[in-house]
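Still learning folds. Look over my entry:

…
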Amino acid sequence: MSVVNKKLTDTILSMSLLTIMAGAAIAPALGVIKAHFAEAPELLVQFIVSIPALFIIITNLFFLDISRHYSTRAIALFGLVLYVAAGAGCFLVGNIYALLVLRALLGVSVGLIMPLSTGLLAYYYPPEQQAHLMGLSAAMNQMGGVVATLLAGLLSSIGWQWAFLVYLLGLFAVVMVAVYLPDDHLGSANKRGIPFQPRQLLKFHPSVNGMLLLMMIFFIYPTNFAITAEKQTGLGLTITTLIMVGLDLVAFFVGMIFGQLMNIFREPMKYLAPLFFLVGYFFFSVAHSIFPLLMGAVFTGIANGVGVPYLNTIASIKGGRNSATTVMPLLSAALYMGQFLSPIVVTPLSRWILGEQDVAGSYKIGIMLCLVFLIQVYTTRHYQSLPPKGK
């Protein structure tokens, strides 16, 4: 890879590092935020976490039209500047409604950045490099989660607003995009209208539905782990936080070697994410000591580290150079829709089927969803396969 290409690759990957921080950056501070806004309705406090996902989805709806009118560099710079301003701007506000407005604007910024963070890899690099690059993109995404969780946890010990200063990390991506990202117009090559039309959904539904299921399954873990681990094993906050960071690190290392894994497990790769999630959630559901929790974290981390780059790779190859304005906004919307729907769907199902007293009920629902995921992969297996090597 030439020096120019390496700088371009690093620039695109710098955006991947930031996207997961939309929610992860404030996760460690949520307890103190809730305590600070104790008089506000609980739903509004929950919206601090969930509202960015809604606005990411809405922004993705219009991404193709935006890309027709503005260049890639302009979209990326606007998105990144808004990301820093809306994210870190929460440090300056003390009103929950102003906080929610800034969180919504953060969602808009990620909605602009997310399709570019993967779609540009399909635009600038040939298909034979995309498995490796999508793995790196997913790895950077996981590393962003590790950095955000650790820094926000430290900063929130000073005060709840301080956690939002994590978003200042976006400044280095602003500089890299301004210097190294070409000023291309991606949308000018695609005249098919907004990417959410039925024709596009029909064409890419295996990857889109797969991403929706994958995220619904994965987000059972971060929304339940701290609570269930304490009830099942009596572990304190420090240990559970370290286990959660460890899971992100497992997913990071899997992403770093994803290209090699694709060469070794080219055909069975499509089944690895649902199978590893299933095993991981089985360990979580029966855990009464730290060992099953650690095993569950390892298998879940591998599943997430494999699943996201695999779906991105398949979709980018199927979508070709237009991926940034067609399938990648769809995958981004599915990813965040899965995050948003997971607690809304899983928790009521767990209480209805297994009862409120089942501490591990959410993980058992997750196992059921893994079986649905496996059926979805099997029935669309011909689409979810890479072309033979050398083609």
Observations:
- Residues 192-196 have pLDDT under 50 and may be disordered.
- The chain is about 75% helix and 0% strand.
